[in-house]
Amino acid sequence: MLQQLSIKNYATVDILEIEFQIGMSVITGETGAGKSIILGALGLTLGDRADKTIVRGGTKQADISAEF
User: Fold this and answer.
1) 11: closest CA among 47, 65, 64?
2) Could you give all domains of the chain from N- to C-terminal order, each with its CATH number?
3) Which of 1, 15, 17, 23 is 20 to 30 A from 41 in CA distance terms?
4) Which residues, at least 6 apart from 34, have a Cβ–Cβ distance to it below 8 Å?
């Protein structure tokens, strides 16, 4: 079970920390709110390939971690 997701300097995200509670979690929001960015970051923690374009502009590296 995913317990925590930490995203720093990924796409348009400066810093985002999400802690998931026991039970079902739902990510909702309007178009352009960043739902796909969260799922993309989670995909990287599971082995998706990344390239330099994911790093937020003006920064040198993105940091993404997940706790299961």
Assistant:
1) 64
2) 4-67 (3.40.50.300)
3) 23
4) 12, 13
For residue 64, the tally of other CB atoms under 10 A from its CB is 20
Per-residue model confidence as pLDDT tens digits over 1-14 = 999 999 999 999 99
Q: Which two tokens stand for residue 65?
A: 């971690």
Q: Are 10 and 64 spatial neighbours (Cβ–Cβ below 8 Å)?
A: yes
Q: What is the pLDDT of residue 43?
A: 97
User: CA dihedral in degrees (57, 26, 50, 64; nearest 10)?
Assistant: 70
- Residue 50, classed as helix, strand or coil, is coil
Pair of tokens at residue 29: 């929001």
Residue in the structure block whose two tokens are 């997940």? 66
**Cβ neighbours of residue 54 under 8 Å, at least 6 residues apart?**
10, 11, 40, 44, 62
